[in-house]
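Most newcomers find our protein records easier to grasp once they have seen one. Sequence and backbone structure share a record, each on its own labelled line. To make this concrete, we reproduce a full record directly below:
***
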Amino acid sequence: MPETSFQGQAVDTARPASAAYLVIGIPGSGKSSVSAALARRFPLGAHIEGDHLQELIVAGGRLPSPEADLEADRQLLLRARNAAVLARSFHAAGVVPVIDDVVVRRAHLDFYLEHLKDLPLRLIVLAPSAEVVARRVAERDKVLADDWSFLDAALRAELGGRGTWFDTSRMTLEETVDAVVTEG
């Protein structure tokens, strides 16, 4: 059996990853599917899913809701900071990080951008029509506790003009990833 030594093994590479991606949109916009497929396009790619980071809080976790909840907001920023920490680590190791998260408010996006500064970041906004999102949410196994359709209006009002936007209403997953690689 070959001998393996971790002593002196470098984790980070001389060449960091060529890019980092932040894929945002409302629930049902296709963030997780697109991000996972996009990460698979690179020789080394990592999909960092905001929802999974939230699930690491096993006691006292609070999800965002339409009502004001300062603790839920704090945990949302904690999840964003943790996603950024992972993205920086993967990037330094030559792995293209692809973060996906529900981001619809300017302050939330600015928090992400501050924690991802100095990375070759590509901001991708998935914005299919509200009707398409409603259909997708109804067809999937993941059940949302509330009707989050109002987030579409917030996304468009607060983040319009930021990043590269894709109306994926009539695009397949592969077409979307192709467009992101080409234009994003």
The chain has one domain: 20-183. The chain is about 45% helix and 15% strand.
